[in-house]
Structures are given as C-alpha cells and as structure tokens.
C-alpha cells in the first residue's frame, strides 16, 4: 500500500449462520488503485481487515462464473467490475439475490445445479456413433444457431436479476432454459421432444413475464430472455400442432 | 414429469392483442377520446350514420371486434400475471375466471351485437 | 451436526428496488388503461346498436373533463405500451435472416417503428377522411 492509494468504503452484507439471526451490513475502508477489481477489494478485506469474510472466486477473468454478487443492487461479476467506477461513492455488496445466503457473499446454488442437471445439458444423439464413423459434423451456420447460447458460464447473474425466479423458486429460470434451447437447437442432438416437456410446463417458459433484465446483466451477451421467449412461440406451436402432427409432450 | 401448461391459449390471445394495441390504440384513443370530444376535428368523424355504416359491412364488423376483444385479452392476461408480481398468490382459479372470463365476455358480447347489426 | 442455516431474503417491495423493475411494472400497468379503454369502446358499441340517441349520449359522455383526462393519460399509456412492445418483439420472434446474416436488433426495432408509423397514418387518414 503506497501513500497515494485512494480509499473507498465497501459495505458488505454479512451473514454468519452460527451467530446471526439475519444478515447485517458491515463497513470497511479499502485502499485501492485504478486497476483493482471489486473482487480484489473483497480479497483485501479478507487478507487485512476481517479474515472471516466468505466469498467465492476462482479465475478472476470472467470465465469461471463463481464471483457473482450484487454490487450496489446490480448483479455483476466482481472480477469484471472495477472499484474506480464507484469512487468516490461507496460500494454495497450483497450475495446474489433470490438465492438463499449460505454465508456472507456465498449463496446456496443447489437449486440452480439441480435445474441445470434436469435439462440434460449435453448432446443426446439419435444413434451413438462408433469411433470408425468419426466425429459429429456441424457446419458454421449450424454452429451459428447455438454459438451465442453456448457461451453461458453459469454465473447465475440472470437468476439474481429475475424477479419471477425470486417469486416462484420452481421456475426453471433464464440460464437453464437458455442451455436447454442451446441443446435443442444443436443439429447433433435428438432429445428435443424430451426437453420440450420441461419447457411446456408451467415452471418452464411460462414462468417468464419478459422483464428482460436477465439479458441486461449477462456478462457474456447470451441473451437468455430471447432464448426463453422464442421458446414461448415454440411451445405454443407444439401445443396447437400436436393435434395435427403429434410430437413431444403429454 | 412436468405437466403441460395451457398457457399457450391465453398467451396467443395476449400476443395478438398486444400487436393490435401497439398498432392502433394510440390513434384510436386520440380520435375518440381527445380530438373529437375537444372539437379538434369535425364531429362528423364519429357521426351515427358513419359508425352504423361501418358496423354494417363485414370488414367494419371484424375491425370493431378486433379492436375491442383482443385488447381485452391482452389486458386481462397482464393484470392476471401482475397479481402474482404484487404478492397475491392465492385464489388463482378465482382470478382466472374473473379476468379471462371478462375478456371472453368482451368477445362474445360484441360478436353478438355485431352479428345483429 | 450441520450448522447450515441458509437465509432466504424476502421479496416484499421488490419492484421499487431497481429502476428496471419500476419500468417493468409501469409497462404492465398500461394494461389497466388498455382494458378500461376497450370497455369504453364496448359500451360505445352497445350504444351504437341501440340507436342514434344512445350513440349521441355516448359521444356527450366522452366530452366530460374526467373522460378527457382519462384519455390523455390512456394515450400516454398506449404509446408506452407500443414502444415497449416493439423493443421486446425481437426477443420473441425467431431471428430475422437476410442474405444468410442475422438482421441486427436495432434495425428490426427501427423497422417496426416505421411500419407502425405508416399504420398510424393510414388509420388516421381513413378515420378522418376515409
Ligand atoms: S445466461 Fe449469462 S447471466 Fe445467466 S448464467 Fe449464463 S452467463 Fe451468467
Ligand atoms: S472469478 Fe471467475 S468469473 Fe470472476
């Protein structure tokens, strides 16, 4: 720490399950330089001010998706957000909204993991290929259909942005539906009918009211709102067309 | 396994209504609710003979039905969903009957009137 | 023994906590005005079907200050509905392709504005002079 460091106030919503009935705000004064991220600010607190502060991080380069938190009320990756953007104001940090707080800035993400698993986020081919048959082929245009939706890093910022998920925890939610869409649209996949059942449900696309904030906060420009809402159209077609040409669904 | 939702029925009507509202309602409100009542345009625009004439032809009938019924579906669907947004989670069936019932009534009544005109 | 005790935060008052949510609630609220206006039209149709005198009474009712005030606000709501409707439409429709390229969202939205503008003018022309 050099003498010309600036000092910024960082308020953190603390919650220690062993001691606390409910979360409370704790304020820290953190010296920083212009190239430091909010994550580095939190790390400074843990290293020098209060070692009991808990938070998740790994890659510190916006790719692992583990450092998401509410920064002044907006879900962001803390490694991709800089302290200087808020100075001389203060920063308030809180665990990602709409998830239970496990401890401090750490959420219980088991609900998201279960949903992610439920949509079968992997290619299920019509018939497995043998090694001799070689790889599954995909043209650039076929890749283009799914490329955007496959850049999701499972950071859950979109869930923290989605009030419908907060209001209805059963709702499948933005990232899971987007990944479902990504596999349904993949030319190498053949499990669309099966996944459509999840989409067609009340907890599927119909949980969405197009607030649209998920797409605003997504750090990877995945546009989950588009994936969800285009599937309202798909689900509607599926609903009416099943009488004409039965496929996928009960 | 998750159960198929019947939402596509009301969502389609909501979507159609939203399109109709977006493309007609600003103009309709301006003419019927502002321009004619304030005398900004001639009162003949909404004269009885003219409107009765409109409701006489099949195109006019369809137009009137569309601008009354579909916006009601759009409105009913949004208000119904907003209840949940505001934390009103009980009585779902009751509210469904109230709002979608009103929209259905707002479809059948003009249909009945227009056919008889 | 597990000392886990996940804390679930309440949702009460969520719509005021972010300007994005406020705009969302505003957008949804336009439905109230849309609904009332559609009912006003429906009443008009009822009057129309019962003859000239009844229709003229409807026209007179539309001149009351309360009615004018309502329609001014309702027109604002209708315009807000249109703007928000066009801005989210590209999220609902499949991507528009042109020459094998995705048409940029901004162009789609602009195209809808132009289209709606034409419809407004045609409609207004038909109503006023048709
Ligand atoms: S869709 Fe975007 S915001 Fe949501 S989990 Fe994936 S990368 Fe994160
Ligand atoms: S630390 Fe990996 S995304 Fe921020």
Polypeptide structure, described:
The complex is a heterotrimer of chains A (about 250), B (about 120) and C (about 130). With about 250 residues, chain A is α+β, with helices and mostly antiparallel strands. Chain A folds into two domains: about 5-105, Ubiquitin-like (UB roll), CATH 3.10.20; about 110-240, Orthogonal Bundle (Fumarate Reductase Iron-sulfur Protein, Chain B, domain 2), CATH 1.10.1060.10. Chain A has nine helices and seven strands; from the N terminus they run E-E-H-E-E-E-E-E-H-H-H-H-H-H-H-H. In chain A, the strands form two sheets. Chain A has a five-stranded mixed beta sheet. In chain A, strand 3 (about 70) and strand 4 form a beta hairpin. Chain A is elongated and about 70 Å long. By secondary structure, chain B is mainly α. Chain B has one domain: 3 helical TM bundles of succinate and fumarate reductases. Helices cover about 75% and strands about 0% of the residues of chain B. Chain B contains four helices and no strands. Chain B has helices at about 5-35, 50-55, 60-85, 90-115. Chain B starts with 6 loop residues before the first helix and ends with a helix. Chain C has about 130 residues and is mostly helical. Helices cover about 70% and strands about 5% of the residues of chain C. In chain C, strand 1 (about 95-100) and strand 2 form a beta hairpin. A two-stranded antiparallel ribbon of chain C has the order 1-2. Chain C folds into two domains: about 15-90, Up-down Bundle (3 helical TM bundles of succinate and fumarate reductases), CATH 1.20.1300; about 95-130, no CATH class. Chain C has helices spanning about 20-50, 50-60, 65-90, 105-130, and strands spanning about 95-100, 100. The interface of A and B includes residues 168, 198, 235 and 249 of A. Bound molecules: iron/sulfur cluster and FE2/S2 (inorganic) cluster (FES). Iron/sulfur cluster binds next to helix 4 and helix 6 of chain A.
